[in-house]
Design goal:
The complex is a heterotrimer of chains A (360), B (302) and C (521).
Chain A (H helix, E strand, L loop, with lengths): L11 H28 L4 H13 L2 H26 L7 H16 L11 H28 L3 H21 L40 H18 L1 H11 L1 H6 L4 H28 L10 H12 L3 H25 L4 H25 L2
Helix pairs in contact in A: 1-13, 2-3, 2-12, 3-7, 3-8, 3-10, 3-11, 3-12, 4-5, 4-6, 4-10, 4-11, 5-6, 5-10, 7-8, 8-10, 11-12, 11-13
Chain B lengths: L1 H31 L7 H19 L2 H25 L4 H24 L32 H19 L1 H11 L1 H6 L4 H27 L11 H11 L4 H23 L6 H18 L15
Helix pairs in contact in B: 1-5, 1-8, 1-9, 1-10, 2-3, 2-4, 2-8, 2-9, 3-4, 3-8, 5-6, 6-8, 9-10, 9-11, 10-11
Chain C lengths: L1 E2 L5 E2 L5 E10 L2 E11 L3 E6 L6 H9 L6 E6 L2 E2 L5 H6 L2 E4 L11 H6 L9 H15 L14 H14 L4 E5 L7 H16 L3 E6 L2 H7 L2 E6 L2 E6 L2 H13 L5 H13 L11 E11 L5 E11 L3 E5 L6 H8 L7 E6 L2 E2 L5 H6 L2 E4 L3 H5 L6 H5 L8 E2 L2 E2 L1 H14 L16 H13 L6 E5 L7 H16 L3 E5 L3 H7 L2 E6 L2 E7 L5 H8 L5
Helix pairs in contact in C: 7-8, 9-16, 15-16
Classes of the chains: A mainly alpha (360), B mainly alpha (302), C alpha/beta (521).
Chain lengths: 360, 302, 521
């Protein structure tokens, strides 16, 4: 066939579509959210002001939102890295949980609190990262060795991890604090002060942790890696066409497994940060909701690290506002789930047409 | 005494497996047609919610059942349009629907019943069959809620349609080679739409069983992964009907152990037992060459 | 008498008439101004090269696409199928190039697909099949799984499936492409039978031998338009062939090109002094236990072009996959550049100086969504890395040079690879493999499939140049003429074994053809 297609002039609108779409989706979801609030009979003004206070009200609120955003961003970056290789990691919540468990265990180890030069909080974080990496790696190995769909594998592992978390704080043989009375809560002992992640400002009224600069480093490394490194190129090749990538000398199995290890590791790190930077003791269900939030952030971002940061900030503040709205105005935070679902569906619906028009 | 316990165990296993029987059979039909519905979880939850609300508001569990199906239909239609018409990624849309269903059912429940969880609703009672229910070992098999017999009939019908009718051939072909179906003049999209709707109805029934058949209450997020277990059961069963049903029974048994083992005097941490079905499922997908038995065009946007 | 749009007088009303049909895919015009009619009791051949628009035309008739211009008439009434179902309902059936059969289902189920929806009786269907089979001379086993059948058997099932719907028009799209010579004869016989029973048979082909044997009427398509037609094909064969391949200004070039290639062939058979690649007793057994390659032993000398002839499906694909590192032999070994590459990864194979142009360039050689520049260096991006990061500027500049060197025509190195024409894609892949550092061996599998004449000549030239520079070339092709004109010697593959070897000369064509169809000695 010698006749080549004449190239069509791409209208400016179409080049901006990939960025417009998430914005439109979020805006539409917010409108729906407000409609639901009104439908529930809650005065919109009251709900919105409660939301605002919870998200931006004071330094504490903003810091809490940022800390939340850091966790989501880490999970989201992990998601897009795996996604570049064609894998969908839905096990964020489990990877966070496993990270939290290992971080707590390490923090509570005798001798950890006395470690010098910040190792007291760095080592548990490293352990948490490693644990998350292993948890993601299991799914990766299953995918490569046996062909198990990674969505199923990461999902099942997530459930298992959540119940492992439950077990570890229920059982005194594991991490549960000694039961002095029947009212002793199923939690771990509080972690020693030196194992806590230091705060940027040093003051608990604005408790943004060292996690923030850490995230910035991770984000920069990830962005450069995805766009300019050989590994990033290999990820993309495997994600587009594993057979051709294999013929071109890329080790497809290694690439797939490593991408899930990285995604899991970032999730584990997020869990460690939550434990050592905010929660300070292990409680059942501490990871609840972060998995889905991180997943949605990853999907929203459509492969871009900047997109992840933007989405993480959005959802970080959204969640904080949502919690406040529930407490002060009686609007269940489940509303945020509805908005998330809407955003995912809107973007997924348009994605097929977006991809088709961009490959011209 | 032990025969009693074993019988009890069998009965519990079946009871706990019933929602899976419904959902997995429904999902099997979709997957044989080439579609993965990650949204089974959300559809089951919607069914549970619909059943609970319907029964509570009308006082009749039967109407509740109808309400469950009605409520799930738009969800199934949504999934079908997204998958077949808009060609969106099946995994992503399924998960999106699950998230939304969780949010909507929680909101809905709070709005209708207030924040009081554990509200008791009119539900179905056990319907013991006259002579069979009194048999020594297998008695509890026949002391189930009537929906058990319904699902057995549905499974038999599905088996017949798949193996012995032209629609069954077309459905299976849709999952293996959708282009061949188009070239042969069979309505590919129509078949896939119908499959997803069937999955929706079955998921609704399975979910409704949870709220008005088994526990007679609704709690937020009460399906708690049952929908995903249904999908795993299909994989475990290598996409064959009878094996899938067996897998559901196995998962039901694993959950039943939670209550049985203490009765045998064996102390196992609760969390481990709750984890058991997922662990089994993981072993299942790790150990089998299930992928070779999958419908060739599964989850491909065609 | 009826007058068709083209002005020819007809004695009967055509069964199917196309008037002014045109089809565009976006900006690409696949068909234009097509006026053609198909009559009952006739075999009408659509002749044309790859990419001339023949398949598109069939798809329009069968309802898979809708025309962007023109009308169709079925038995005098307007015919506008929205999909295959309308076509089938109207009495039009099509034997597709890629069959409409489901491998996982048995023959009977495949025959029922789309025809019956309620309760089915497999045994009755089997009986109907036997009746049909004996009437038209088709030989089929009803209970076999289609996936287990040979290609020829599958085609018979496909034909039976079409005939079961009692069509008035039967379309066959490139039916002989995958058949052995005697299977081809059988098929042509079936076509005559079907036409004799009252059907209008439409056969799409690019093989001239078949035209002569079976066609009552021929229409030649070139670049989406009708280039010629004839009601007496046997007599007009030369005119038809000329119309098929004629390029307005380039007829001189084609002749020059052909002569140049012929001139480079030495008068005496080429005897290489050193060996570049050795394959020693290689067998490959697939997952179902079928032997795809059976004890293959061959060598390729430095500077030699060894051709592998054979109808597709006789082990050539497996051989190509093995040399590409995508398939491991079950037994035996193979070497290149004195290295044992039997269990080597694709990376090691490339490092050993083996270049591979696979038969399926879209799936294996390149990634369509990546840029041309990325694909030109797909297997050696590391040459642009500093401190682990890719220097995109350097990559772009070198890609530009490569484009000029191998005459790859594209708006720029950053366009998506998939947007290039087939010929340019193939030139890019070939260029990449030919610039493999330390190239000693080149495997080219079906390298000119789907290419126009200009690109074909370019490919032959590049291959010949490589051989002259000392590269050992293994050329797999199902076009015997191609092998005769390019290769030094030809090995024939049949059912996974090497059944014979000949020097690549036109006088050996007949013997090679015989070996290709399994005739021994």
């Amino acid at each position: 066939m010698n006749a080549t297609a004449k190239s069509t002039l791409i209208p400016r609108f179409q080049t901006y579509l990939p960025i417009l779409l998430p914005i439109v989706a979020v805006a539409a979801a917010l409108v729906v959210g407000m409609a639901v609030v009104v439908a529930m009979g809650v005065p919109l003004g009251q709900a919105l002001s409660a939301f605002w206070r919870g998200a931006f009200g004071n330094a504490y609120a903003v810091s809490a939102s940022i800390n939340r955003a850091v966790v989501l961003a880490l999970v989201g970056i992990g998601f897009i890295i795996a996604s570049r290789a064609g894998l969908t990691n839905v096990g964020g919540e489990g990877q966070i949980a496993v990270g939290g468990i290992v971080a707590t265990a390490l923090c509570l180890m005798p001798g950890m609190q006395a470690m010098p030069v910040g190792l007291s909080f760095i080592l548990p974080l490293a352990g948490a990262t490693l644990a998350g990496g292993v948890w993601g790696g299991i799914a990766g190995l299953l995918r490569v060795r046996v062909g198990t769909n990674e969505v199923i594998a990461t999902l099942l592992l997530s459930f298992i991890a959540v119940w492992l978390l439950y077990w570890s704080v229920q059982s005194e043989n594991m991490l549960r604090q000694p039961m002095t009375s029947a009212a002793t809560l199923p939690e771990s002992l509080p972690i020693p002060a030196t194992t806590q992640v230091p705060l940027l400002t040093g003051s608990y009224s604005s408790p943004v942790t060292l996690g923030l600069p850490l995230l910035v480093v991770v984000a920069v490394v990830a962005a450069v890696m995805l766009r300019r490194s050989l590994y990033g190129f290999a990820l993309g090749a495997v994600g587009l066409n594993p057979v051709a990538a294999s013929r071109a000398g890329v080790s497809v199995g290694l690439t797939l497994v490593s991408s899930l290890v990285i995604a899991g590791a970032l999730g584990g790190l997020a869990g460690g940060l939550m434990l050592q930077g905010e929660q300070y003791s292990l409680k059942a269900g501490f990871s609840s909701g972060y998995g889905f939030d991180g997943l949605v952030v990853g999907l929203l971002a459509r492969g871009s690290v900047t997109g992840v940061i933007a989405g993480a900030l959005l959802f970080g503040f959204l969640r904080s506002g949502g919690i406040s709205m529930e407490m002060a105005a009686g609007v269940p935070s489940a509303l945020v789930n509805v908005l998330q679902g809407l955003i995912v569906l809107m973007i997924a619906s348009a994605a097929y047409y977006l991809d088709r028009s961009s490959s011209r | 005494m032990t025969t009693e316990l074993v019988a009890l165990f069998l009965g519990s296993s079946i009871r706990l497996a019933i929602p899976l029987f419904f959902a997995a059979t429904g999902e099997l039909v979709s997957e044989r047609a080439g579609i993965v519905n990650m949204s089974v979880e959300g559809m089951m939850l919607t069914g549970a919610f619909g059943g609970a609300v319907g029964a509570a508001l009308t006082g009749s569990p039967m109407l509740g059942l109808g309400c469950a199906v009605l409520l799930v239909l738009p969800v199934a239609i949504l999934q079908s349009v997204l998958t077949n018409t808009l060609r969106a990624n099946q995994i992503v849309t399924g998960i999106g629907i699950n998230i939304m269903a969780l949010g909507l059912t929680t909101l809905g429940y709070r709005a209708i019943f207030g924040a009081r969880s554990r509200e008791v609703i009119p539900g179905f009672d056990v319907w013991p069959l006259p002579y069979l229910g009194d048999l020594p070992l297998v008695g509890p098999l026949f002391q189930q809620i009537w929906m058990f017999y319904l699902v057995v009939i549905v499974i038999a019908i599905v088996g017949y349609v798949l193996a012995k009718t032209g629609w069954g051939i077309a459905l299976r072909a849709a999952g293996d080679d959708p282009q061949a179906v188009v070239k042969s003049g069979a309505p590919l999209l129509g078949i896939r739409h119908a499959a997803i709707l069937f999955t929706g109805v079955m998921s609704a029934l399975g979910g409704a069983f949870l709220s008005i058949g088994d526990i007679h209450t609704f709690t937020e997020g009460m399906t708690n992964g049952a929908g995903y277990l249904a999908i795993v059961a299909v994989i475990f069963g290598s996409w064959k009907l009878w094996r899938t049903v067996a897998a559901c029974l196995l998962f039901g048994a694993a959950t039943a152990l939670q209550f049985q083992l203490p009765a045998f005097g064996i102390q196992v941490p609760n969390a481990l037992l709750i984890m058991m079905p997922y662990l089994l499922a993981l072993v299942a997908v790790a150990g089998l060459a299930g992928r070779q038995a999958a419908p060739r065009a599964l989850a491909q946007p065609q | 008498m009826h007058k068709t749009v083209s002005g020819r007088s007809e004695a009967v009303l055509p069964l199917l008439a196309l008037r002014g049909i045109g089809k565009s895919f976006g900006a690409f015009e696949a068909l234009r101004d097509i006026d053609v009619s198909f009559n009952a009791h006739q075999v009408h051949c659509l002749l044309g090269e790859n990419g001339a628009g023949k398949s598109t035309l069939c798809n329009l008739v069968f309802g898979i696409h809708q025309p962007t211009a023109g009308t169709m008439e079925l038995e005098g009434r307007a015919y506008r199928p929205a999909g295959p179902r309308d076509a089938l309902a109207g009495g039009i059936a099509m034997v597709h190039q890629h069959f409409s059969l489901v491998n996982e289902l048995p023959v009977t189920d495949n025959l029922l697909l789309g025809r019956r929806f309620g309760r089915i009786d497999r045994r009755a269907e089997g009986k109907r099949l036997q009746e049909l089979a004996s009437r038209y001379g088709l030989d089929i086993v009803p209970d076999a799984l289609v996936g287990d059948l040979s290609v020829g058997q599958r085609q018979r099932v496909e034909i039976a499936k079409c005939l079961m719907s009692n069509p008035r028009v039967l379309i066959l799209d490139e039916p002989t492409a995958v058949l052995l010579p005697d299977e081809i004869s059988a098929l042509l016989g079936v076509c005559r039978q079907v036409a004799a029973s009252g059907c209008a048979v439409v056969m799409v082909t690019h093989k001239l031998a078949e035209i002569e044997r079976v066609a009552d009427r021929v229409t030649v398509l070139r670049r989406g338009r009708i280039a010629a037609y004839s009601d007496t094909p046997a007599a007009d064969i030369n005119r038809l062939v000329a119309a098929m391949i004629q390029r307005p200004q380039a007829s001189g070039d084609a002749a020059i090109g052909a002569r140049a290639i012929a001139a480079r062939k030495p008068a005496v058979p080429f005897r290489p002094k050193q060996e570049a690649m050795q394959i020693d007793g290689v067998s490959i057994v697939d997952r179902l236990g079928i032997k795809r390659l059976d004890d293959i032993t061959l060598t390729v000398g430095r500077g030699e072009i060894v051709g592998i002839a054979g109808v597709e499906g006789n082990g050539q694909s497996e051989l190509g996959a093995m040399i590409g590192g995508l398939l491991r032999p079950t037994s035996g070994r193979w070497f290149a550049s004195d290295q044992d590459l039997t269990h080597a990864s694709p990376r090691r194979i490339t490092a050993a100086g083996v270049g591979v142009v696979p038969e399926d360039r879209h799936a294996v050689a390149a990634i369509s969504k990546l840029s041309l520049a990325d694909n030109l260096y797909l297997n050696r991006m590391s040459r642009f890395t500093r401190f682990g990061l890719i220097d995109r500027g350097a990559q772009r500049r070198q890609a530009q040079d490569a484009m000029t060197k191998f005459d790859v025509r594209a708006p720029g190195p950053l366009v998506a690879f998939g947007s290039l024409s087939g010929g340019n894609q193939q030139k890019a892949v070939l260029g990449r493999e030919l610039t493999t550092p330390g190239l000693k061996v080149l495997l080219a599998a079906q390298p000119t499939r789907g290419l126009d004449i200009g690109a074909i000549e370019a490919v032959y030239g590049l291959i010949r140049d490589a051989a002259e520079a000392g590269v050992g070339v293994l050329l797999i092709s199902s076009e015997l003429d191609e092998l005769i004109s390019v290769a030094d010697r030809i090995l024939v593959f049949y059912r996974g074994r090497i059944v014979g070897e000949h020097v690549a000369r036109p006088e050996n064509s007949h013997s090679i053809g015989a070996l290709m169809s399994g005739q021994t000695a």
